[in-house]
Specification:
The protein has nine helices and no strands. The protein is mostly helical and 190 residues long. The chain has a single domain, classed as Tetracycline Repressor, domain 2 (Orthogonal Bundle), CATH 1.10.357. The mean pLDDT is 87.
Length: 190
């Protein structure tokens, strides 16, 4: 069953107000009253959709984590076909669609809903699993290579959200990621 249009619009208004507030002040200083005032909704309306501001945060983070996880799975599938650069650019383009929201959420560090930690874990796990499937004896640990990969991808994502899409930055990130994956190919003698 699809969500009623009025419910969708109300949740969207609350979410947008919350993101605006995150750009203005720290999460710990935002109140439900602030969110309701900014979104022009009552507290009872807010509480009919969310338990509290933490629930709102968790739902926004989950939405982006689910999307990011699907994109990373696609990325690793296409890397098997040698299309790393195209997938990096696709990930950046999709993040840019929600630039303001993702940018704000990446700066909130609450244990139950930390978008940065979730994104890094997805990147690390996907890379580790990909490298671990390769039957090679590496001179560098897979754990280290996966950490480098995740750090590189997060640096590019964060930089792009702040500065905009830059072909040179994407090309550099692509080169760095190819270097990481070339470590596996070299141990195969390819």
């Amino acid at each position: 069953m699809e969500e009623d249009v009025r419910v969708y619009k109300t949740k969207k208004s609350i979410s947008e107000a919350f993101v605006q507030l995150l750009h203005e002040k720290d999460f710990s200083h935002i109140t439900v009253k602030d969110i309701c005032t900014r979104s022009l909704t009552s507290k009872s309306t807010f509480y009919s959709h969310f338990l509290d501001k933490y629930d709102l945060l968790e739902k926004l983070v989950k939405k982006h984590v689910d999307t990011f996880e699907r994109e990373i799975a696609r990325r690793f599938e296409s890397m098997k076909q040698g299309h790393v650069g195209e997938v990096i650019e696709t990930m950046i383009d999709q993040a840019a669609v929600h630039k303001r929201e993702i940018g704000a959420l990446l700066n909130v560090h609450v244990s139950a809903a930390d978008l940065r930690v979730e994104f890094e874990a997805i990147l690390y796990d996907a890379c580790f699993a990909f490298l671990d499937k390769e039957p090679a004896e590496l001179t560098v640990s897979i754990d280290y290579l996966a950490q480098l990969y995740a750090a590189n991808a997060m640096a590019l994502l964060h930089w792009t959200l702040q500065n905009g899409k830059d072909a040179s930055a994407i090309a550099l990130a692509d080169s760095m990621q190819r270097f990481i994956f070339d470590q596996v190919r070299r141990s195969h003698g390819l």
